[in-house]
Amino acid sequence: MLRSIAEKALPLLNAEYAAIVDRRGDHFEIAAAVRVAHPHRAARKAAATDPLTGLANRRAFFDQLDAVLASSASDGTAVAVAIADVDGLKKLNDDRGHQTGDGGLIRVGEPLVEGVRGSDLVARIGGDEFAALFVGAPIAIADRVMRRIAEKLASSRLMGGQPAPTISWGLARATARATSDRLIEIADRAMCRHERRSRARVG
User: Are residues 109 and 130 in contact, defined by beta-carbon separation less than 8 angstroms?
Assistant: First the structure.
């Protein structure tokens, strides 16, 4: 009886399942060793990822920021946000082509990821705009990290040998009633001030 059931059941198993039939005396046990293909998980990951850089995208960043701010409001965890703008991306695109410009964006993302902790989040939230979320780090620490990343970029080169793009950045720290939009606005204003100072030095 059990054998008959097993024989009928096996052809019906999905290809994603490996059926293991163990014979123990007159008894058969079917163990479904599931090689789990996670189509839904893969789709969720794709929806949260910037396809060019492989970083989190804007939606994923704001979702995480909202969750972190909600937690911080109850436990007082320090939260800081950095907004970084890629300097001269338009000129790089115009002079070297969009493929080189895309390479510049990828290159900017690499030291950002390498420079933060595993518990932090780096995202590309716009065409030439990146963001970093620092959880449990005072703004002074976040500033130090961003300075190191900017210095590393300033001395690096793209695959074609041309200098890698540099970044201007701004920071904001969460207060008790901070919202994600307000934090981004403050960090963005600080980034614009940094950008103006950099241009003034160059000029």
Answer: yes
